[in-house]
Amino acid sequence: MKSEILKLLRESEGYVSGQQLCEHFGVSRTAVWKVINQLKEEGYQIEAVRNKGYHIVDCSDIMSREELQSQMNTVWAGREIAYFEETDSTNTQAKKLGDAGAPHGTLAVADKQCAGKGRRGRGWDSPSGSGIFMSILLRPDMEPSKAPMLTLVMAVSVAQAVCETEGVDTLIKWPNDIVVNGKKVCGILTEMSTEVDFINHVVIGVGINVNTGAFPEEIAQKATSLRLEMGHPVKRSPLIASVMHFFEVNYEQFQKVGNLSFLQETYNRMLVNRDRDVRILAPGNEYNAHAIGINEQGELLVRRGDGRTEAVYSGEVSV
Ligand code: BTN
Q: Catalytic activity annotated for this protein (predicted)?
């Protein structure tokens, strides 16, 4: 009931009367009053005016399961939420939930991770209040060879969500770093549990630097946060809900089409490396090339010095 009261208060322009809430939920005035008090204790600013009712002044960056549920406008993505004040890694938690039978679309979210994982065995710094640390559990009906494309589907979804909710120009560095003003604000780590020709589940972990105030000197040239770029703090829960919305829409198209053709143009428009000379850092193979854009499989098409076009399917690029 708490998340639904929050949703109702947020969606109404003016005041919602106690009577309306009682009737809507079929509960007593005291029960409504108790929930309102709990919400106030959690940090929500709710005005209660006699003969008018309740009105929410939505200003703080609150994270809880109910807050996230109240923001979510999806059918399956992020409808089930496991929220942690602190955990090792949301990817690890989502995998555990997957092994225990949690449904497609279950989302693990943490305020803080003490063993956040990055790509290529790196860590992911995840202090409390600073960022979005979340992992979605998927049970895709597709061949395991197609699963890496899901990471690109998520990359576009995050870029679309950041652009829509924050109004900031957001680009993608192939394959899946989200970049604002030339610096990384988000990384994505996909992990999979498969049989030979069958996917048990896929976990896509997303780390967004939202309110990080400063970065260590060694990465300050390359990393940034939304707050640093926009000059004001950003609320995490609406951004999480927006990522889930875009991901759900894009994922359903991907399931239908079976490749990235429907997203190729959007991705390539956001591709920071497009039409640029880049250095390809493929496993055991580094070389310079000219980046053209992704193909339907999400591979990066590059032109080599001798004029040959090649599709790079794994690795990273440095500009
Ligand atoms: C990268 O190295 O760019 C990928 C970073 C991915 C970090 C996210 S934070 C939420 C999820 N849980 C993890 O342990 N890692 C991912």
A: biotin + L-lysyl-[protein] + ATP = N(6)-biotinyl-L-lysyl-[protein] + AMP + diphosphate + H(+)
